[in-house]
TrEMBL record:
Source taxon at top rank: Bacteria
Full protein name: Type II toxin-antitoxin system RelE/ParE family toxin
InterPro entries, per database record: RelE/ParE_toxin_dom_sf (IPR035093)
């Protein structure tokens, strides 16, 4: 089976950064945790057949 590639649009990356900045205004810790969790889920979805 051919390996899959996850392609993330530049606008999606900017959206993720904006979400992190917004959450970090009240909690830098939870902003980092949220982004780590979300990116792990995105990677998992990309791997699922």
């Amino acid at each position: 089976m051919k390996p899959k590639r996850l392609i993330v649009a530049p606008s999606a990356i900017e959206d993720l950064r904006n979400m992190r900045r917004y959450i970090a205004e009240s909690s830098p810790h939870y902003a980092q945790e949220f982004l780590a969790d979300l990116t792990a889920k995105i990677a998992w979805i990309a791997e699922v057949d």
